[in-house]
Amino acid sequence: MDTTYAMSKETRLLNLICVLAALGFLAMIVYVAVTTNDLLSTDNLFIMTVCLVLALTFAINPLLYLKSENKLPIPFLKKSIGTGDDWKSKRLPGPAGASTTPPLLDAKGRAVPPDVRAIVSGFGKHEQKDA
Predict the structure, then answer these.
(1) Is residue 11 part of a domain?
(2) pLDDT greater than 70 at residue 95
């Protein structure tokens, strides 16, 4: 038997157990909320908080596994531009003499305005003047 196949079966089984445990703790929260008379008592809030923390603890491992396998889309995650030559294919078509250099980014990964880009491009051009 192949070791990667066995590892895949183990991972799948452990993730299934974690998901079932998380769902069990969430079901316990619903059960406590439905069956008690005084929902906002200290004891009920404590039980719900503990169950919620345990559900999160068991749910984080399968979620991280799905993220590592790229099967979990994260809606507000920006993909970095400088991860290869992909920026050329995503670039909008411009005039024929347009520059093929990658976009200039600031420290937070945002595109630099054109006037700042012009100033920065002038830094590299130094001509020696006769004294």
Answers:
(1) yes
(2) no
